[in-house]
Design goal:
This protein is an alpha+beta fold. The chain is 27% helix and 21% strand. It is built from 26 helices and 31 strands. The strands form seven sheets. The chain has a seven-stranded mixed beta sheet, with helices on both faces. A five-stranded mixed beta sheet has the order 2-1-5-3-4, covered by helices on one side. Helix 2 packs antiparallel against helix 6, helix 22 packs across helix 23 (766-776) and helix 24 (828-847) packs across helix 25 (905-917). The radius of gyration is 28 Å and the shape is globular.
């Protein structure tokens, strides 16, 4: 019997063992996404005879004779389904990869189910939003301009809607700066027509082959031989690639504007494997199944080498040298024989003198764990050759231009012979600032002259991509009774895993703003980034700052307690103010980092006031007494981040007036839920006196523009946006100049308005301008460039009120508040969503997320049900407030706000737990069992 898909009978027959997800995608239903293939995430949800199912674990044969509805079929001839309309109105998405599955689940809810979303959305995961906007969408609560909250109650005692939720310094013009402009991709996301990396119809890539990888079962070994014959004998296998077929050039998978920022320690395929999960061979076949069978058939002989799994062991004399054969100078590895990738040693003033002057000293070792990005779209790429023989790459990447440069370098190809395109990217968080799939599909396509696709499984994401760097931080800090910070000393050990991608940058950045935010004449840092035979670490939201801020902000609270001062008052006394040097590891401040604006004091006040109001709300509602088994505490933490990475971050954009009087903006930066598409449209619209709906943004294609460093380091607004604004302003001048010449009016009398230029008493439409420009040979397209300097600083402060059950260790978050200094907020709703998503991701990292590696170097948390990311029920609603500032360096006063919301959450929560229980938790995650055991050991719990 045929399977009916969206009202039409399919003529295809499922293969034996095929799941419904892959069958539906082969039939062209690309809105059905793969997030796990284990029934854990819900991205693949469809309806079978009206009931929602996870199609990745639903056998396709079971759908024979049944009606299957995908997101493409949810709407009717009359228009969108109500839940699609609601997701558009509330903008219940960011990257959008999970959204189709979320809507398919929610579309089946009745009122009773909508009243219990924590239970009924437990099978659908989102990594971007923090779920508040999803709840608003499911419940039909729209989102008006500047609202800080929407939907159901944020707290038992009622949502707090007082305070400064959006900056009032710049009034919002509809469709321009400060307005809640909807995401341009919204209609495509809610209808399932937004195209991600692998959403390419089969007819566009005839002869498409599939790649699967054989990965190392050993943490450290030399490959003696690989017998390809058994794999090549598998029906459907076309080719096998090993280290003998790969370029010899060493490079780094990490992508930066300056590739020399990272050590060259990696080959496309290597004859030495350094962690369990490292790629050994690539098998290319006519189908995924054949490629998997071919990989299993390969016969590999290994010579086992001694591994080392912790950085503490790796730096001991006599430890196995993981990259000992490499030339440290050539590869830019600090001390390869000692496993040290990079190191920094610095002292400002004299910490000995600072400790001598201290009335209280806090000394403790803090540890942060491996955390996975868990972008819902796994790493994936397709390579093919176009009609001219150029290498084409379609990839889920944050850095298409840097991928192009790396492929050019590794394969010795002229840059003009390569084109890299990123479709919409299903989440990144730094994990896609790497080359992890593109080099392999390029290798195969260049050899076979056929299209090749590689898509990682969720298990490969956990075992073979990258994680956040684990940090061990031994901290010693001193303060005097009058509240002065007298000394900060840190000994830092970071575990970069088997390869050094991002190791230097994460270490240096972590030791930067985390220290520079405090005035202290005596600071000392000794830091080492160290190789181990474990899964590599890489770029992760915060880029080292979240780890260091956890330690420093925890210590700040301990110092305040030790001298008997309120922790927020202690911060206010010691944090930097305009005019203060921001110093960390060098005696002089970064020459291009300035106080473009300053709102840290406002952020502290906003959080303190919100916590006070929350306490009063609970008291007024009679909810402040939870019973004798509960203790309540408050805690806060602050963070500072440079708005742009150092040493250059470049963007090139182009803005043009089209024949129909609308505008087009070409940008290089990728969209992965960070909202840069909307920001570019709003910045251009503001400069051109139009609305964002009249601006079409094209992006993430290396053929569009000269260069763009990429979407990382929170640079989408403050770098690429600056280039867009510059190009738009120049185009505005060009249009006005042309209008002046047509009317004879003075240029100063010509003013751009919606769809026209007013020149005194005459009005010239934009279409007339286009016609005149064509006749005069005037180009109505302008280019903008920005190099990422000078840079400013952005601030975030987070506060919590928590309750801890002294009998069970249960933790309840009673109130969560974050205040942000984002300069002039281009799109308040969107910026709030970034903050909420950062808070949610950080809560997972502080409470339960951990990539666990066993004593043999094997990742044991390799599927989503073993690695707990926050679900709907796990995330409290957070109050979000913005400081009122206007940055002198950012476009129209804006600052960055993508990474930084993550950074203060862990220490703020740890400080609140400390305030409630008297126990300092210095190791993440602070899981419930750890709280229970610590309380028991303190005899608060009877044995």
């Amino acid at each position: 019997m045929a399977i009916e898909i969206n009202g039409t009978a399919s003529q295809a027959t499922p293969r034996p063992g095929q799941c419904l997800r892959t069958f539906l995608r082969e039939e062209g239903n690309f809105g059905v996404k793969k997030g796990c293939d284990g029934g854990d995430c819900g991205a693949c949800t469809v309806h079978v005879d009206g009931a929602p199912v996870h199609s990745c674990i639903y056998p396709a044969v079971r759908a024979e004779g049944k009606a299957v509805t995908t997101i493409e079929g949810l709407a009717s001839a009359e228009g969108l389904h109500p839940v699609q309309e609601q997701f558009l109105e509330a903008q219940g998405f960011q990257c959008g990869f999970c959204t189709a599955g979320m809507m398919m689940t929610a579309a089946t809810f009745d009122d009773e189910q909508r009243a219990n979303l924590p239970r009924n959305l437990k099978g659908n995961l989102c990594r971007c939003t923090g779920y508040r906007s999803i709840a608003d969408a499911v419940c039909g609560h729209g989102d008006g301009p500047g609202e800080a909250h929407g939907g159901d109650h944020q707290h038992d005692a009622g949502a707090d809607v007082s305070g400064a939720q959006s900056p009032a310094a710049v009034p919002a013009t509809p469709g321009q700066l400060g307005d809640n402009v909807p995401a341009p991709a919204g209609p495509a996301i809610v209808t399932g027509t937004a195209r991600y990396a692998l959403d390419v119809p089969a007819g566009q890539l005839p002869g498409l082959l599939h790649m699967k990888l054989l990965r190392s079962p050993h943490p450290h070994a030399r490959i003696v031989s690989i017998d390809k014959a058994p794999a090549l004998a598998v029906p459907g296998v076309v080719a096998v690639f090993t280290h003998e077929d790969a370029p010899q050039l060493l490079f780094s998978t990490a992508q930066h504007e300056n590739y020399t920022d990272d050590p060259d320690d990696t080959r496309v395929l290597d004859n030495v494997v350094r962690f369990i999960g490292q790629r050994v061979a690539a098998v290319v076949a006519e189908s995924v199944g054949a490629a998997e069978a071919g990989a299993r058939a390969l016969a590999v002989q290994y010579e086992l080498l001694e591994p080392v799994f912790t950085p503490q062991e790796a730096i001991l004399p006599g430890a196995p040298a993981i990259h000992g054969e490499k030339d440290g100078v050539f590869s830019r590895i600090s001390r390869p024989l000692q496993n040290v990738v990079a190191e920094v040693h610095a002292e400002l003033g004299s910490v000995a003198d600072g400790f001598a002057a201290a009335d209280f000293i806090h000394e403790h070792t803090y540890q942060t764990q491996r955390v996975q990005h868990v972008a819902m779209e796994t790493h994936a790429s397709i390579a093919w050759l176009d009609e001219e023989g150029r290498l084409m790459i379609r990839s889920s990447t944050q850095v298409p231009f840097l991928v192009k440069r790396t492929l050019s370098r590794v394969f010795n190809l002229a840059p003009e012979t390569i084109r890299v395109v990123a479709g919409r990217v299903g989440g990144g968080f730094g994990g896609k600032q790497e080359v992890l799939t593109e080099d392999l599909v390029a290798l195969a396509t260049l050899a076979l002259r056929r299209p090749v696709q590689l898509e990682f499984t969720r298990t490969e994401q956990f075992t073979a991509t990258t994680t956040r760097h684990p940090f061990t931080i031994h901290l010693k800090a001193g303060a005097s009774r009058d509240g002065a910070l007298t000394a900060l000393q840190l000994n830092v050990l970071t575990n970069t895993g088997a390869y050094g991608n991002h190791a230097p940058g994460v270490m240096f950045h972590g030791c930067g703003e985390s220290l520079a935010v405090y005035k202290c004449v005596n600071k000392k840092v000794d830091a080492h980034a160290v190789y181990t035979n474990t899964v590599p670490a890489g770029a992760f939201r915060g880029y080292g700052l979240s780890q260091m801020i956890f330690a420093i902000e925890s210590a700040i609270d301990e110092l305040a307690v030790g001298i008997g001062m309120d922790p927020l008052e202690f911060r206010l006394k010691n944090m930097v103010r305009p005019g203060d040097h921001m110093l960390s590891t060098t005696p002089e401040p970064e020459e291009d980092v300035h106080y473009g604006s300053y709102g840290l004091d406002q952020c502290v006040a906003l959080v303190r006031d919100a916590l006070d109001r929350g306490k009063e709300r609970y008291r007024a509602a009679g909810l402040d007494d939870l019973g004798p088994d509960w203790v309540v505490g408050e805690g806060s933490a602050l963070s500072m981040i440079d708005t742009v990475p150092p040493r250059g971050h470049f963007a090139h954009t182009r803005v043009s007036l089209e024949a129909d009087g609308r505008f087009a903006v070409d940008v290089g930066t990728a969209e992965f839920g960070n909202g840069t598409t909307t920001v570019h449209a709003q910045l251009a619209a503001t400069a051109l006196a139009t609305t964002a709906s009249k601006v079409a943004v094209r992006q993430s294609d290396t053929d569009l523009l000269e260069h763009d460093t990429g979407a990382f380091g929170s640079a989408g607004t403050v770098v690429a946006g600056k280039a867009t604004l510059g190009a738009a302003l120049e185009l505005a001048t060009r249009i006005q100049t042309l209008a002046a010449s047509l009317t004879g009016a003075a240029l100063t009398d010509c003013r751009l308005v919606e769809g026209a230029v007013e020149c005194g008493d005459r009005t010239v439409t934009l279409t007339e301008i286009v016609d005149a420009a064509r006749l005069q040979g005037v180009r109505l397209a302008t280019d903008g460039n920005w190099g990422g300097t000078p840079r400013s600083v952005a601030f975030n402060v987070h506060g919590f009120r928590v309750a801890v059950n002294t009998g069970t260790g249960e933790l309840r978050i009673l109130q969560s508040v974050q205040a942000a200094d984002a300069g002039v907020v281009v799109n308040p709703r969107q910026c709030r969503g970034q903050i909420e998503g950062g808070i949610a991701q950080a809560l997972g990292a502080v409470l339960y997320e951990e990539v666990k590696v066993d004593d043999a170097g094997q990742v044991t948390t390799d599927i989503l049900r073993q690695y707990h990311i926050p679900s709907f029920a796990d995330v409290p609603r957070s109050e979000v407030y913005f400081a009122t500032t206007n940055d002198s360096t950012g476009p129209l006063g804006a600052k960055s706000m993508s990474e930084s919301p993550f950074n203060p959450v862990a220490p703020a929560l740890a400080n609140a737990i400390r305030n409630a229980t008297g126990i300092r938790f210095g190791e993440l995650p602070i899981a419930r069992d750890k709280i229970y055991l610590a309380l028991r050991d303190r005899t608060l719990i009877p044995n």
